[in-house]
Amino acid sequence: MLANVKKIFEEPLYPYLRSVDQDENPPVQKPVIIIGAGPVGLTLAIDLALKDIQVVVLDDNEKVSFGSRAICFAKRPLEILDRLGVGEQCIEKGVTWSKGKVFFDERQVYDFDLLPDPDHKRPAFINLQQYYLETFLVQRLEKLKADGKPVEIRGKNKVTSIDQKDEFVILQIDTPEGAYAMQAQWVVACDGAASSVRSMLALEFQGRVFEDNFLIADVVMDAKFPTERWFWFDPPFNRGQSALLHKQPDNVWRIDLQLGWDIDKEAELKPEKVKARVQKMLGDDVKFDLEWVSIYTFQCRAMENFRHNRVIFAGDSAHQVSPFGARGANSGIADADNLAWKLKLVLDQLAPEELLDSYVEERVLAARENILNSTRSTDFITPKSKMSGIFRNAVLELAEQSEFARPLVNSGRLSVPSVYDKCSLTGKDHPDMPAITRPGAPAIDAPVDKKWLIDLVGNDFQLLAINTKVPDMLQVNEICIKSLIIEATDIVRQRYLGNAKSAVYLLRPDQHIMARWLEFDEQAVIQEIKRITRYSGRGN
Amino acid sequence: MGTLNTFPNLNDPDGFYEELLRLHEGLSEEESTLVNAKLVLILANHIGDRAVITEALTLARKSANVDQF
Ligand SMILES: Cc1cc2nc3c(=O)[nH]c(=O)nc-3n(C[C@H](O)[C@H](O)[C@H](O)COP(=O)(O)OP(=O)(O)OC[C@H]3O[C@@H](n4cnc5c(N)ncnc54)[C@H](O)[C@@H]3O)c2cc1C
Predict the structure, then answer these.
(1) Of A482, A523, A485, A531, whose CA–CA distance to A504 is shortest?
(2) CATH top class, domain A3-93+127-205+302-368
(3) What average pLDDT does the segment A272-297 reach?
């Protein structure tokens, strides 16, 4: 830990407090226990609490995560955080950005603009330190608890063993005041890439380690650099390697410097050495302080199955990616978004527990996509053979002169939501409607009567009727389906109608589209809902 | 789409070949490799059809007398 440490890391945000459960014998049983209070565990806990599912979050720590971790948060996770009541804070604190530059050697090869789209509530990206996101999530959770929602977080509660029975799971938990046990109907392991739950269950986590080291430094400085993502290949200040500079709130800047494989980590982490490297990068006249410095080796790994009976894995415990593309926390938040409503239906006995396998199906697909993307980026950024280095340089040199080569430059393909194509919950499509809103895709935002579409849907099943009618409310197998009727504007037409004159969309509680038709047809909706209430893993 | 043309398609084979050799004249092996890499990228982009490119990659690798990739 280096100079200028902020209070936020040090403050125990959820200090250990004795719970009455510690004195219970036999142990109490909870519907859901979440292990790990990182971004994923906290997101899931809030979502479940809002659905009135009793949930306890256990974490072996009592503070937010420290050090250089996630900074880039993408539009879709921001929309999820909005649904949970945390989005606004993130936007207010975060740095919104859309521009980037790519340099090769001493030259700028090209620049890009992700063009903020005025027809979406949320921007493509914001930068926000992970510790801020976690703080906001903890505060939201505490607020829900104060408002009477059945949620709590227990610091310094370390899970040390797991015993799966047919009907429940028994957890052994260590605390500063000794051990206790609890039972849970469902356990969600959100305990990070080094998941101890995964080890306790002797489950594999396979993939690729990239033989390279990255020095990640967060520096505090009053610099004139613009709010842009700058990426260097083979710059004079870090020959033969890559570098990244990106702005965060509070005048903190993220710096990534690739170091190569054979290095002396301890020597590289010495403050003098780090300062010299950073000074060389920023120029002699820039004054800065180091906030955090770490050396990371990146990997792309995933579990084969994210559900093992009553234990479900989400976030980094289930899949880990290299940070190029900012797909770690972003996809973990989407895991939570996908799992919460399914757990709710299963606990309410409105759907069979096999429905949870659809979480596995959809999020394994997403994990594969993320791993593919971040592996490709890592291979471009850190070429592993002479020939791949030659192709990389060829691409960069061509990109400078010729537009065609620019799409080949891969300094990270930034996180986008996965579309659950061909998955068992993905239903009927209509050929006249646009591909971006096909079943399986998340709803795409659009302005609707001075509001945002994305704010008008979510948390429940919903029929969205455009230029046509649907009943105010529909009840199918005890599942309540709400309605939203809107008139098409140009943007809505472009995003939802295409060549169709009208449309009825069926949305899931996570805002993903299940099916769409020209007009309302009750039997058709019932058929789609049966995919869930009679889930068999094969679709209908 | 797809189907790579594996029949003669250049109306001036000897002229093309001469030009290709001239492209590398005076270059070190390293420079030549870079130029070749650029050429591959330029031509691949011009072809555009991913299936045709895959057929071309497979054909190139096959004649290198190593296992398929
Ligand atoms: C340098 C770097 C840059 C990154 N940049 C980005 C980015 O820009 N965007 C992005 O989306 N992602 C990024 N990531 C990835 C992101 O940090 C992770 O994906 C994210 O933290 C995963 O969240 P999680 O909740 O799954 O796990 P974690 O955040 O790892 O949380 C796990 C929690 O479980 C607790 N725990 C572990 N074992 C136990 C136990 N036995 N009992 C109780 N509690 C336990 C831990 O204390 C911890 O609090 C980056 C990562 C790195 C390293």
Answers:
(1) A485
(2) alpha beta
(3) 94
Task: Count Cβ neighbours within 10 Å for each residue of A69-89 and write b for 16 or more, e otherwise.
Answer: bbbbbbbbbbbbbbbbebbeb
CA–CA distance, A247 with A261 (Å, rounded to integer): 27
Tokens at residue A192, please? 């990070």
Distance (Å) from CA A309 to ligand 1 centroid: 24
Half-sphere exposure of A207 (CA within 13 A, CB side): 24
CATH 3.40.30.120 domain range(s) in chain A: 435-533
From chain A, pick out residues whose CB is under 8 angstroms from the CB of B41: 391, 394-395, 398, 405, 408
DSSP state of A261: S
Q: CATH for A435-533?
A: 3.40.30.120
pTM score, two decimals? 0.95
Residues A437-457 have a mean pLDDT of 96
Are A246 and A230 contacting, i.e. CB atoms less than 8 angstroms apart? Answer: yes
Distance CA A317, CA A116 (A): 33
What is the mean predicted confidence (pLDDT) over A55-72? Answer: 92
Mean pLDDT of B41-66: 91
What digits encode the pLDDT tens for the residues A290-322? 999 999 999 999 999 999 999 999 999 999 998
Q: Looking at the predicted complex, does its ipTM rise above 0.85?
A: yes
Estimate the crossing angle of helix A75-83 against helix A328-347, to 10 degrees. 40
Per DSSP, A494 falls in state: I
Q: Which of residues 395-434 of A touch B (CB under 8 A)?
A: 395, 397-398, 402, 404-405, 408
Interface probe for A, chosen from B31, B38, B46 (most Cβ of A below 10 Å), is B38
Q: Which helix (H) or strand (E) holds A312?
A: strand A311-313
Mean pLDDT of A334-362: 97
Q: Are the C-beta atoms of residues A454 and A511 closer than 8 Å to each other?
A: yes
User: Taking CB atoms and an 8 Å cutoff, what residues of chain B touch A402?
Assistant: 42
3-state secondary structure A96-128: EECEEEEEECCEEEEEEECCCCCCCCCCCEEEC
Phi, psi torsion values for A207, nearest 5 degrees: 165, -150
With CA atoms as reference, the chain A residue closest to B29 would be A390
- Residues of chain B neighbouring A408 (CB-CB closer than 8 A): 41
Ligand 1 is surrounded, with C-beta below 6 A, by: A 35-41, 58-61, 65, 68-72, 130, 158-159, 190-192, 196, 216, 296, 315-317, 323, 326, 328-330, 332
Q: Phi first, then psi: give them for residue A420, nearest 5 degrees.
A: -85, 60
Which residue spans of chain A are classified as CATH 3.50.50.60? 3-93+127-205+302-368
Per-residue pLDDT at B64: 61
In contact, A108 and A406? CB cutoff 8 Å = no
